[in-house]
Amino acid sequence: MGGKKFGVLLCAEDSDFVKKTYGGYFGVFVKMLAEEGETWDLYRVACGEFPDDEEVESYDGFVISGSSRDAHGNDAWICRLLTLLTKLDSLKKKVLGICFGHQILSRALGGKSGRAITGWDIGIRTVHLSSSSEIFSSLKIPALLSIYEIHRDEVWELPPKAELIAWSEKTGVEMFKYGDHIMGIQGHPEYTKDILLNLIDRLVKLNFILDSETEELKAKVLAREPDREAWRRLCLNFLKGGL
């Protein structure tokens, strides 16, 4: 697997906490996914930093991060990202979308996303994996996996020809696969407990959630561990293997 080249399309602004603790969200993804001999590059697409057409050709795959922005919005950088994702699809580049990345991939391929009818999902969620999807059976992944979630948008409608491969009681589209080269995950396989706890505090300060809710939310986060290693194997094999 050595010698491969990947890019992170960063759609979020790094918090002071994540910068200090992990060197930014790029550092979080690299820690989870990078292996010896590989090259990993950062593109702050939310700030207008995009790979040019010649650079795109040289990559084996890309990861799209989460974001505080709406995947159904029309900010200039979001529209530019949609164009890039259409190109990556035509080139059959491996693309893994996380949270916002999952939603924007769906939109780029012809699906729809928007505000979740059931509101915010914050904490740890049990996800049901499709028994018919080869991606799980080949890796001997269990039928149920827990994952950190923090989102208020969701995929409403899958793109044509996309395969629904995971769902939960809260969210109908937790994961989808498009061909052999694109996969979206609504949850955050890259998050650690401290990142999620810090984000809950930030949401309170931004008045997205009530201060009275934080104690219960944090208690639920602290009570369980997500299946981080299984998610890591899944993401690694998708990006670098034959899934």
Q: Which residues sit in consecutive blocks of at least 5 with pLDDT less than 50? A: none
Shape: globular
Q: Roughly how much helix do the residues carry, as a percent range?
A: 25-40%
Total helical segments: 9
- Cross-sheet strand order for the largest sheet: 2-1-3-4-11-10-9-6-7
CA-CA gap between termini? 14 Å
Q: Estimate what percentage of residues fall within beta strands.
A: 15-25%
Radius of gyration: 17 Å
Order of helices and strands: EHHEHEHEHEEHEEEEEHHH
Largest sheet: 9 strands, mixed
Structure classification: alpha/beta
**Count of strand segments:** 11
Overall mean pLDDT score? 94
Topology (elements, then pairings):
Elements: E1 5-9, H1 16-22, H2 25-33, E2 39-43, H3 53-57, E3 61-64, H4 76-90, E4 94-98, H5 100-108, E5 112-115, E6 121-129, H6 134-137, E7 144-151, E8 153-157, E9 163-167, E10 175-178, E11 182-185, H7 193-205, H8 214-223, H9 228-240
Parallel strand pairs: 1-2, 1-3, 3-4, 4-11
Antiparallel strand pairs: 5-8, 6-7, 6-9, 9-10, 10-11
Write structural notes for this entry.
- This protein is α/β, with parallel strands linked by helices and 243 residues long.
- It is built from nine helices and eleven strands.
- A nine-stranded mixed sheet has the order 2-1-3-4-11-10-9-6-7, sandwiched between helices. The chain has a two-stranded antiparallel sheet with strand order 5-8.
- The chain is globular, with a radius of gyration of 17 Å.
